[in-house]
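$ run holo --ligand "calcium ion" --emit tokens
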Amino acid sequence: MFALYAAISLVPVLVLGIALAASLRGEAQRRGLAEGRSEAQLIARTAVEPALSARPVSAGLNARERRQLRQMTTSAVANRDVLRLRIRDLSGTVVFSNDGSDVGHNDHDDDALDAAQGEVSADLTHLNADFHDVDPGPASVEVYQPLTAGAGARRRVGVLELYLPYAPISRDISSGLHRLYLDLAVGLGFLYLALFLITASVSRGLRREAALNAYLAEHDTLTQLPNRTYFHRRAVDAVAFAVRHNESVALAIVDLDRFKEVNDTLGHHNGDRLLTELALRLSANMRPGDMVARLGGDEFGLIVRDVEEAEPALRRLLEIIDREVDIDGLPLSVQASMGFVIAPEDGTDVDVLLQRADVAMYVAKAQHVGVARYDEALDQYDADCLALVSELRRGIDAGELLLHYQPQSTLVDNRVRAIEALVRWEHPTHGLLSPDRFVPLAEPTDVIDKLTRWVLREALTDLRALAPSDDELCVAVNVSARSIVRTSFAHDVLETLEDLQMPAGRLIIEVTETALLVDPERAARVLTTLANAGVKISLDDFGTGHTSLGYLSALPLHELKIDRTFIADMLHNSAHAAIVRSIIDLGHNLELRVVGEGVESNHVLASLHDSGCDIAQGFLLARPMPRDEIERWLVQTPSAAQAA
Ligand code: C2E
Ligand code: CA
Ligand code: CA
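-- output --
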């Protein structure tokens, strides 16, 4: 059976092989046209027709149709997938043209009129778009393709006139054909096999599907922008091109500030609309040959060829992003930060370049300067720190964070009342990092929100496993200023509690005074919501900030934690001893519990006890320890605490 099939298919294959060998160029062109035709069909079906309504385009395009077409063509032209795109009505009049050419004109073009009757035509032409690597010979494939619209029985509504770059098509085909030619010389049998395979692989159906898949694999479905894969490939090409021609090229990373807040407060649907609008603005403002891609989330990548103008161009884009967006009648504005590198000066390896652009982006964000170029002279320590933040984002997803727990015990009867969750980072190369190494770096960026969410969920999950039924035992979680004032913070916390089926009363949120001063009113509102739900609020590092007593009494607090610098030397520094006693009195007058932290000696413990302090925490009782260890520690507790 297979032999018969093989024998039958040998005949046309042989004929095709001989025809190909006889007329390599002619065939290449024919194939180029066929390829152009099927590409045009693909573009018509997947991009143009979905943008059109069912009526004939002679009625004129509406604003929405124009907007969508412009968005689609701007990014396609910027990526050099398309050189020019026009839409004509059924009489041949141009109603849309991406470069504005000939709109309103009718040159009674035969091909256009044939297409209006349903016929597709393709020709090789010399449309000279500023296409960098134009081969001598035809520069483009010009295709006329009927456009249909409407559900069910589709009607012809207009004609798509498309110019596709010929060079990439001809490169593909002639390299395939050269291979064929060689194979012919090698032998008929081998030719047969090769043709058999190649014929199958170039069959039109497959090619169309492959083209569609290739498009989907390289574009972001939300914004239609090229995705990270495509961006990376084009960046590699652009850097190689620059190196070959002694030129430079800039790569930039754009990250929106506080985009997560938009998503949280207005919903993902509106977050998506914002991203789509910004993508549209960015691609509409790209120069020919430049590129914008969506790298993921709220991060975009740019390739800018004119490096002299790179920084001003990026600043202009920032302004463009900054302009208000109308989301459901709500004027919204988002800011962004950009970091960029210039190749080959800042490197030639695209992965390294993008990481450096990322570092520069964090500099821009942390220093609120909008745009920053990667600077090698940048203190290496800073660079490492900044690189660390970008690694942290991935580290959290990769499960590199862990929590240590330190117990807090009552001074009257030595019972463990809570365990404080203290985050650590098991870094793949730097080893175990303490929070002081990375939390302050994450705080100016939205990475801190990710970290807070992770800690909260992890701590509550651990507590549930450690003490499922002990309603007396709480877990204390440290929360940074930035996370507190995020609008959705209270909601996130309550949702997590609900999710894990944990009573709100088992969670203590530790905030520092300085955190509250960032936005006191908002912080008070958020904390009140939480306190009303039963969450306990503890004011950490108390005594170091400048909280006014008026503000303090307005906060829904449960406890004060005396800063450990006062505790550490209270036995030798009488001023600090007085501060400790005053804080204890103040706390009690406000009906708050008072925690002394940083207790390292029995003398300090005894002194706190005598002053009426409620709870102690410190190395004397126990150091922060991993989950398994605290589990054992809790089992032995009363005795361990008494021994202290
Ligand atoms: P903190 O909230 O004041 O946490 C107490 C710190 O004091 C811990 O340091 C703890 O190990 C240390 N400590 C406890 N007892 C003693 C003692 O007797 N003597 C001395 N010298 N130190 C003691 P750690 O774990 O390095 O945490 C440092 C800071 O990092 C924390 O200070 C907190 O501000 C921050 N942090 C820790 N985990 C998180 C977190 O999940 N989120 C946020 N936003 N910040 C965190
Ligand atoms: Ca704390
Ligand atoms: Ca503290």
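-- notes --
The first strand starts at residue 84 and ends at 88.
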